[in-house]
């Protein structure tokens, strides 16, 4: 006898699993660290509770999270009370939380606070060491992932605000074990260049773990040691990292960092035009004031010029006498040296002519040799062309026994249908021409 099998649908199986979990375990208190917290537009919260060995998905609905008196965030250690359940649509095991209380800061948050306190004690966050951003940078260095949303946001803002600004991307990994070293190395490299005016260091949003590379000591020290002003742009406005405190300027988002890095070109042009207009007005006012003072200046200038003119006339007379004496002495000196220079010139010309005459026979022989070679080469070419022409000539074909027949108008006869009885034809042989009259023709 065949045993009847119970066959579940997927929905029935997940529903049975949910009932089993809810009835077998029921409501429990769980302690762990919040990770990947998402606040949905509906008001519900979704996150993960984890410890060193495991993690569990959690959901806390709006009617339950409204009573929370502290601000949940990634890295915060909490105690949560709720119902063990299963999300039937995806078959995910989860905890439906009804109450939650702060249990102390998570291990990552503790590391963050310790490093922050250590570097602050060393003075890395002091305002006195912060460098001002340049008013109008020529080239901006961007240190981020080449595939993330941050670089797209930064490029969009920079191109919109100042289209012809130069941007140099230093691609790095922004998450994982090697991310901190990659970011610090990129900062050090860009500091070896002389063509970078400001640096933007950052990435898009994420959990505390995702942003942790920017909480590493090696990154903070690289930022603090940078001779180039650094803008930190990590995550969203609510995210704070060690890099934010070490940087010269902290931006709430990558897009905001781009806005801080460079002023808007159109506004700058408007400001320049406004200042130009003010300067033009000031100059016009100054011109009017000076015009009113011209008559007084004119009288004093005339008096001063008369006295000065007499002094200068005397100096001109003295300078003219001195110049005349100098010219006379210079002319006499040149006349004295003229015979010697003439002798030198004659000697040089004689030597030059003699040297050129010695070269003349050799040049004549070379020219004769070149002309002979050129003539011989042209004769060979002419002979070769003559041979080719004879080979292509129709007369060469006639020499092999063929003939060329033409009508009296000179048309070459290729078909008997071209001629008719009584017509005169001219036949060209290899030697001579035959005149004939058509008596009859065969097709």
Explain what you see:
With 443 residues, the chain is an alpha/beta fold. Among the domains are: 10-105, Beta Barrel (OB fold (Dihydrolipoamide Acetyltransferase, E2P)); 111-266, Succinyl-CoA synthetase domains (Rossmann fold); 394-443, no CATH class. It contains 10 helices and 13 strands. The strands form 3 sheets. Strands 1-2-3-5-4 form a 5-stranded mixed beta barrel. β12 (424-428) and β13 (433-437) form a beta hairpin. α4 runs parallel beside α8 and α5 runs parallel beside α6 (217-225). The termini are far apart. The model has no long low-confidence stretch (mean pLDDT 86).
Structural class: alpha/beta
CATH architecture classification name of the domain at 111-266: 3-Layer(aba) Sandwich
CATH superfamily of the domain at 111-266: Succinyl-CoA synthetase domains
Q: In angstroms, what separates the terminal alpha carbons?
A: 104 Å
Radius of gyration: 51 Å
Proportion in helices: 40-55%
């Amino acid at each position: 006898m065949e045993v009847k099998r119970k066959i579940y649908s997927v929905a029935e199986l997940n529903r049975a699993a949910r009932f089993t979990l809810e009835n077998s375990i029921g409501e429990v208190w769980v302690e762990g660290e919040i990770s990947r917290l998402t606040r949905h537009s509906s008001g519900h919260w979704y996150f993960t509770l984890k410890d060193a060995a495991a993690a569990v998905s959690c959901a806390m609905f709006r009617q339950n999270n409204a009573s929370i008196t502290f601000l949940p965030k990634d890295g915060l250690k909490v105690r949560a009370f709720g119902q063990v359940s299963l999300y039937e649509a995806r078959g995910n095991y989860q905890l439906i939380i009804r109450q939650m209380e702060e249990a102390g800061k998570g291990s990552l948050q503790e590391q963050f606070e310790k490093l922050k306190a250590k570097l602050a004690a060393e003075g890395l966050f002091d305002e006195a060491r912060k460098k001002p951003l340049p008013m109008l940078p020529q080239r901006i260095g961007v240190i981020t992932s080449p595939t993330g949303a941050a670089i797209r946001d930064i490029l969009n803002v920079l191109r919109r605000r100042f289209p012809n600004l130069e941007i140099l991307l230093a691609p790095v990994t922004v998450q994982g074990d090697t991310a901190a070293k990659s970011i610090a190395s990129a900062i050090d490299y860009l500091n070896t260049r002389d063509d970078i005016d400001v640096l933007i260091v950052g990435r898009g949003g994420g959990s505390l773990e995702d942003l942790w590379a920017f909480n590493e000591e090696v990154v903070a020290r690289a930022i603090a040691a940078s001779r180039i002003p650094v803008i930190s742009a990590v995550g969203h406005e609510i995210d704070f990292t060690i890099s934010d405190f070490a940087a010269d300027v902290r931006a709430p988002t990558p897009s905001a960092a781009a806005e801080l890095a460079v002023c808007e070109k159109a506004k700058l042009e408007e400001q320049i035009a406004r200042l130009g207009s003010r300067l033009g007005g000031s100059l016009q006012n100054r011109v009017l004031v000076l015009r009113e003072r011209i008559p007084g200046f004119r009288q004093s200038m005339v008096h001063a010029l008369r006295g000065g003119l007499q002094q200068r006339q005397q100096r001109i007379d003295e300078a003219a006498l001195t110049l005349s004496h100098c010219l006379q002495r210079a002319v006499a000196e040149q006349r004295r040296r003229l015979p010697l220079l003439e002798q030198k010139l004659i000697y040089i010309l004689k030597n030059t002519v003699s040297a050129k005459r010695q070269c003349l026979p050799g040049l004549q022989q070379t020219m004769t040799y070149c002309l002979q070679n050129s003539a011989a080469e042209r004769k060979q070419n002419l002979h070769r062309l003559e041979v080719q022409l004879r080979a292509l000539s129709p007369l060469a074909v006639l020499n092999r026994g063929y003939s060329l027949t033409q009508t009296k108008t000179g048309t070459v006869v290729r078909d008997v249908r071209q001629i008719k009885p009584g017509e005169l034809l001219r036949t060209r042989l290899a030697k001579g021409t035959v005149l004939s009259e058509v008596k009859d023709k065969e097709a």
